[in-house]
Amino acid sequence: MNFLDDFIIRAALAGLGVAVAAAPLGCFVVWRRMAYFGEATAHAAILGVALSLALSLPVFAGVLTVALLMALTVSTLSGRGYAMDTLLGVMAHASLAAGLVAVSFLTGVRVDLMAYLFGDILAVSRGDLAVIWGGAGIVTTLVVWRWSALLTATLNTDLAYASGIDPRREQLILTLALAVVVAVAIKVVGALLIAAMLIIPAAAARSFSRTPEAMALVAAGIGAVSALGGLAASWHFDTPTGPTIVCVSALLFAGSAMGAPLRRSG
Amino acid sequence: MSLLDIKGLAVRLGANTVLHDIDLNIGRGEIVTIVGPNGSGKSTLLRAIIGAINPSAGQVRRKPDLRIGYVPQQLHIDPTLPLTVRRFLGLPRRVSAATALAALEQAGVAPLADRPMSGLSGGQFQRVLLARALLEQPELLILDEATQGLDQPGSAAFYRRIENVRARLGCAVLMVSHDLHVVMSASDRVICLNGHICCEGAPKHVASAPEYRALFGAGTQGALALYRHHHSHDHDHDHDTPEAAI
Predict the structure, then answer these.
(1) CB-CB under 8 Å, B52 with A157
(2) CA distances from A128 to A30, A51, A117, A184, A185 (A)
(3) Which of A12, A237, B58, B198 has the fewest other C-beta atoms within 10 Å?
(4) Model ipTM?
(5) Residues of chain B under the 50 pLDDT cut
(6) Is A163 in CB contact (< 8 Å) with chain B?
(7) Do B80 and A31 touch (CB under 8 A)?
(8) Is B133 among the domain residues?
């Protein structure tokens, strides 16, 4: 018997894959104050689910497309003087609502909406696992390859220009990576909790880190502990797995935040 | 060939024409200072030079592969981004520990290498920014009001450092400044900007030019002149409301 036959093993590997992909990207989301941006992209994913079910496409493809369109729309509009939080508030909830309405039109297809809103990590198949780790690989490669340029553009756009880096291009790469993470994570934690997997581990890692690289690695570690700990806890307490993973992550953040004043390393 | 050649540059931001008819040439090893009232387009000109703003007319020609060291007016580092001085120097290109230390020594802040950027004082921060700019081995060093927030002795020391850097690296320096009297002594050429180039030349020449006096008042001694200048000056140029453009 292959060890991937065990659904718990598959769930653990899926959780680890999402943690690895989300950690470095989550750091950029935190540094660039894009938290709500991640959320808007994630909420749009429900619309992607509805469309892919209606058109009989793989869910991954539909979610990736809609998440990408959402991210690009927000990126474009943000340069045109709209108040960012208002814009995101409109887009995030409008796309979530539109997605929910669209799903209700799907007669003949039985849709377990809860599975897409909150994830269904225990039902991860081998195919899902391949998609998750494939996506994680793409995102990690992209971020490692562009790391210095991304970091410089995040620090200050003028510094980036002076060094021959185009910050708009780096923003586009982040946007692309964000859409991929949303698409692979929807199975694991669901559309409503993806932003949590991006932001909470990165925020918890801040007080342990003196360099950006350290923060990304610590965030990946915290994400991995959250995924495995959440899986174990949901088994033990018979609770929904996705939300339990996020709860463990939040507890780690709380611990880190309370410990921070003692360390104060800056 | 000169490092930088600007012809007929105009920049429009929204409905405002911030800069127009700018011709500017910078040669090797020159120290050129831009002075001008608030909203006269000084920072905009620098940002057009580094390529952060697209001109609406004219062109900015840089020497091919021109290495630019840029010291921004201010750099806000988000508190969630952990960054030591040493790591900051390695952005975007990693440098060896020895190279980083040498740059910090040149800027006079060698003991700070392992400190977080968030723990630096204003003067230390500016010198670290300078150290980073020097690591690019610049042919052209661009400073945008680099002494903002420094006191008089602090900014005087900073400009002496710039002159030392020029002497050692042979790079040209283009800076924007508010410290008029320091500028006058430290520059080869001064450009007086107010949406366009009002006048330019050797510091002495500019200080006595009617266009300059119209902008900054007759005395170049104190900074007060800067804030009391009249916009309704009478040299025969046409000024678009400079206050509207920042």
Answers:
(1) yes
(2) 28, 19, 17, 8, 10
(3) A237
(4) 0.84
(5) 220-234, 236-246
(6) yes
(7) yes
(8) yes
pTM for the structure as a whole: 0.85
Using the 8-state DSSP alphabet, how is residue B84 labeled? B
Interface test with B, best of A34, A80, A158, A206 (most B CBs within 10 A): A158
- A203 interaction partners in chain B (CB closer than 8 Å): 80
Q: Does residue B53 form part of some domain? A: no
A156 lies within 8 A of chain B by CB? yes
| Res A211 pLDDT > 50 | yes
Domain contains B62: no
A189 within 8 A of A39, measured Cβ to Cβ: no
Residue B104 lies in a domain: yes
Q: Do B77 and A155 touch (CB under 8 A)?
A: yes
Homologous superfamily assigned to A3-192: ABC transporter involved in vitamin B12 uptake, BtuC (1.10.3470.10)
Length of chain A: 266
Report chain A's terminal Cα–Cα distance, integer Å.
50
Q: How many distinct structural domains can be found in chain B?
A: 1
The residue extents of the domains of chain A are: 3-192
Element housing A242 (H / E): helix A241-263
Provide, as residue numbers in chain B, all residues whose Cβ is less than 8 Å from the Cβ of A162: 50-52, 68-70, 142
